[in-house]
Amino acid sequence: MFLTFEGMEGCGKSTQCKKLIEHFVRQGHDVLHTLEPGGSRLGKELRRILLDPKNSDLSSTSELFLYLADRAQHVSSVIRPAMEDGRTVICDRFADSTVVYQGYGRGLDPSLLHHLNDVAVQGLWPDMTILLDVEPEIGLRRALTRNMQDNKTATEGRFEAESMAFHTRIREGYLTWAALHRGRFLVVDAGRNPDAVFDSILRGLEEKGLG
Ligand code: TYD
């Protein structure tokens, strides 16, 4: 089984990923927890480049191809081998992040990005994608608090430093994209407490026969 988590900064992906992994491990699954960008050896180098605020002059197109290269390598060297070994793969961000951030966020064409993703994932689409939906104000507040706790500056990371208009486009882009791919997406209201959010995730998995 291949599951992905999506959502804007501060939506609670790390917390919910952790809860879901613990749930599947209790059920006896052999779980691989991975992430994008940065899930492969090459990807770790690409992640450093992509998230370095010094690279804020990257053009939208070169940024796009770095994310796609990260994904292609991640699928072929990490995700597909794990699936072939019968493992359950839980990935923090995947192809939909490209459609939403580079497409709805940066203005590239979402349907073109979908085709490019199709090349990058080589037929390996998630069985289900969990979108943790939260209002931009709440997400950003949580992300900034986390950065302070981690002793980073409030705007560390290229995307946290973007304007509220950008984050609003991200939130709306996710909802639009999820509505276009209802069969694969589970949209969860992530503005609630973590246990309530997790209950909705478990119910959604059961409804799709993946619980
Ligand atoms: P990360 O520090 O992992 O943030 P988060 O905890 O929010 O996942 O940073 C990943 C950033 O990369 C995030 O802001 C979204 C962005 N991103 C894209 O723009 N396109 C992509 O294809 C992916 C995978 C991520």
TrEMBL record:
Record-linked InterPro entries = P-loop_NTPase, Thymidylate_kin-like_dom, Thymidylate_kin_CS, Thymidylate_kinase
Specify the superkingdom: Bacteria
A GO CC term attached to the entry: cytosol
Cite the entry's keywords alphabetically.
Answer: ATP-binding, Kinase, Nucleotide biosynthesis, Nucleotide-binding, Transferase
Q: What Gene Ontology terms for biological process does this UniProt record contain?
A: dTDP biosynthetic process; dTTP biosynthetic process; dUDP biosynthetic process
Q: Which reaction(s) does its UniProt entry say it catalyses? A: dTMP + ATP = dTDP + ADP
EC annotation from Swiss-Prot or TrEMBL: 2.7.4.9
State any single GO MF term: dTMP kinase activity
* Keyword ATP-binding part of the UniProt annotation: yes
**Enzyme class at the top of the EC tree:** transferase
Write down the PROSITE patterns for this protein, in alphabetical order. Answer: THYMIDYLATE_KINASE
Q: Which residues bind ATP?
A: 7-14
Question: Where is each Thymidylate kinase-like domain found?
Answer: 5-201
Instruction: Tell me the protein family, please.
Output: Belongs to the thymidylate kinase family.
Function per UniProt: Phosphorylation of dTMP to form dTDP in both de novo and salvage pathways of dTTP synthesis.
Q: What is this protein called?
A: Thymidylate kinase
The root-end lineage is:
Bacteria, Pseudomonadati, Thermodesulfobacteriota, Desulfovibrionia, Desulfovibrionales
Encoding gene per record: tmk
